[in-house]
């Protein structure tokens, strides 16, 4: 549910806590180092051209209304909740709170430098598991906050936070309490199966760290050549500065170590430098953990995540489709058209269309094979965050295709292989350093499909092996191998 944009202007005295994009102290990205300093003239120019995304200066923040910045209220998507919260950089201090864009997926809470950065969860400036949410009167040492509450994390850190409105506060607390109850129910189920599978309790409920085992960061290798497989830069002759990946310890040049992420399996409390391979692996780990958080909470049967009640319009939509499906002349091409037309409509209607497609694939294998590339592209371009049910249904279609015939399994394999190469920048005429975001985000979902395709072709169990696509460290590989044990049946 998206809140209506707030209309009052920000008070001049609260400009520090209402800035749209806030950078944390001591954490400066490489892009920020080379960026020109902000000036009042530059801020005015940015505000006049792109008011919805430009950073606001202190004076401008007091005169620009929230309506110019777009909808800033709390939003619910297919994974969790997101919106602005005011909080301090490092727990409880006497400094005024700063305004950050935050997300909560299950019990995993993340804080970002800006709203745009939150589209990629691995870029979080702070990430931890919520342990408890409590009421707070909003009275600090120097300031008073009206829509406040308190978050306690499993790391021992406690944050007093302030929402933009009472409705936003209610939604944050409601979702976090729901996530805590759902996670508690999931942990009880895992405990019941601990005697059968020893790995099921190895991870924390958030899925991004080990419950008992304490992992130490790797030692730096100090090689004289960049560890990236396609880079041959030598640090002793080219003048390139030597950096080190905090996940594998490899020596790497600045071009192939420009990405940062939090490594909760090493108890890191801030983003650290990673090489390209470890960054891809960490994105895959976090993406799987977020999906499993959503599934685990839903499996617990907690109110708010169970199957929603259909509206009258949605019921009419389903009835219309069922009438269409009763026509004997209705074929696979017609189903694909229905899937395209209903891609933004009811999930229930979409599920009926997918079931009809699977039914027709048995009797119309030639048509199914003909339209297979179109079905793959439909799955590849779906927005997992806002349409994860539709994405999961199309994922089921891809896996079903691998079971129909080895020829279809091979076709899906190579379509997936090409998509992975594009998302990694390995395609013809591409560069790994300049992969567009819309391609880079496809890597995790394509790799998950690749693992499932290989599993079904070989008739084996779900397994993960370190390869060129995901050169995961020992700790990352151990986390990924634990995920199937925690996934709902």
TrEMBL record:
Please verify whether the record's keywords include Secreted.
Answer: no
Where does it sit, as one GO cellular component term? Answer: ESCRT-0 complex
GO MF terms listed in the record are: phosphatidylinositol-3-phosphate binding; ubiquitin binding; zinc ion binding
Q: What residue spans carry the region label Disordered?
A: 1-62
Give GO terms for biological process.
protein targeting to vacuole; protein transport to vacuole involved in ubiquitin-dependent protein catabolic process via the multivesicular body sorting pathway
Q: Which UniProt keywords apply?
A: Metal-binding, Zinc, Zinc-finger
Q: Which residues form the PH domain?
A: 78-181
Q: List, as start-end ranges, the regions of compositional bias called Polar residues.
A: 1-12, 48-62
Stretches assigned to the FYVE-type domain: 231-283
Supply the Gene3D superfamilies for this chain: Pleckstrin-homology domain (PH domain)/Phosphotyrosine-binding domain (PTB), Zinc/RING finger domain, C3HC4 (zinc finger)
Database matches in InterPro entries? PH-like_dom_sf (IPR011993), PH_domain (IPR001849), Znf_FYVE (IPR000306), Znf_FYVE-rel (IPR017455), Znf_FYVE_PHD (IPR011011), Znf_RING/FYVE/PHD (IPR013083)
Per its UniProt record, what Pfam families does this chain match? FYVE (PF01363)
Q: What protein am I looking at?
A: PH domain-containing protein
């Amino acid at each position: 549910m998206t809140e209506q944009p707030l209309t009052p202007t920000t008070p001049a005295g609260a400009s520090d806590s209402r800035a749209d994009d806030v950078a944390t102290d001591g954490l400066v990205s490489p892009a920020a180092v080379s960026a020109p300093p902000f000036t009042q003239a530059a801020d005015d120019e940015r505000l006049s051209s792109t008011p919805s995304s430009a950073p606001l200066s202190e004076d401008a923040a007091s005169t620009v209304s929230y309506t110019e910045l777009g909808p800033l209220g709390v939003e619910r998507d297919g994974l969790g909740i997101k919106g602005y919260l005011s909080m301090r950089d490092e727990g409880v201090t006497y400094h005024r709170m700063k305004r950050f864009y935050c997300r909560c997926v299950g019990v995993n809470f993340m804080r970002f430098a800006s709203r745009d950065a939150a589209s990629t969860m691995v870029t979080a400036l702070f990430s931890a598991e919520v342990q408890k949410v409590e009421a707070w009167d909003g009275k600090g040492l120097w300031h008073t906050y009206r829509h406040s509450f308190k978050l306690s994390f499993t790391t021992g850190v406690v944050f007093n936070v302030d929402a933009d409105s009472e409705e936003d506060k209610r939604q944050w607390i409601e979702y976090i309490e729901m996530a805590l109850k759902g996670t508690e129910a999931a942990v009880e189920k895992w405990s019941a199966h601990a005697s059968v599978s020893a790995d099921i309790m190895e991870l924390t409920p958030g899925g991004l760290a080990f419950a008992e085992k304490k992992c130490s960061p790797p030692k730096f290798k100090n090689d004289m050549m960049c560890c990236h497989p396609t880079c041959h830069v030598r640090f002793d002759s080219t003048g390139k500065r030597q950096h080190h990946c905090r996940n594998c310890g490899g020596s790497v040049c600045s071009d192939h170590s420009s990405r940062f992420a939090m490594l909760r399996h090493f108890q890191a409390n801030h983003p650290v430098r990673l090489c390209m391979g470890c960054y891809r692996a960490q994105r895959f780990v976090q993406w799987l953990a977020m999906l499993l958080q959503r599934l685990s909470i839903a499996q617990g049967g907690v109110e708010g995540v169970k199957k929603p009640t259909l509206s009258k319009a949605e019921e009419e939509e389903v009835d219309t489709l069922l009438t269409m499906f009763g026509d004997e002349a209705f074929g696979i091409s017609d189903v694909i058209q229905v899937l395209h037309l209903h891609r933004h409509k009811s999930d229930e209607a979409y599920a009926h269309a997918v079931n009809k497609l699977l039914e027709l694939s048995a009797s119309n294998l030639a048509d199914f094979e003909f339209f297979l590339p179109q079905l793959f592209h439909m799955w590849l371009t779906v927005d997992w965050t806002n349409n994860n049910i539709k994405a999961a249904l199309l994922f089921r279609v891809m896996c079903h295709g691998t079971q129909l015939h080895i020829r279809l399994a091979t076709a899906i394999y190579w379509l997936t292989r090409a998509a992975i190469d594009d998302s990694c920048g390995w395609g013809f005429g591409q560069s790994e350093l300049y992969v567009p975001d819309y391609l880079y985000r496809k890597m995790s979902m394509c790799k998950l499909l690749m693992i499932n395709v290989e599993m079904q072709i070989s008739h084996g169990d779900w397994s993960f092996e370190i390869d060129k696509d995901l050169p995961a460290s020992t700790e990352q590989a151990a986390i990924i191998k634990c995920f199937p044990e925690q996934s709902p049946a």
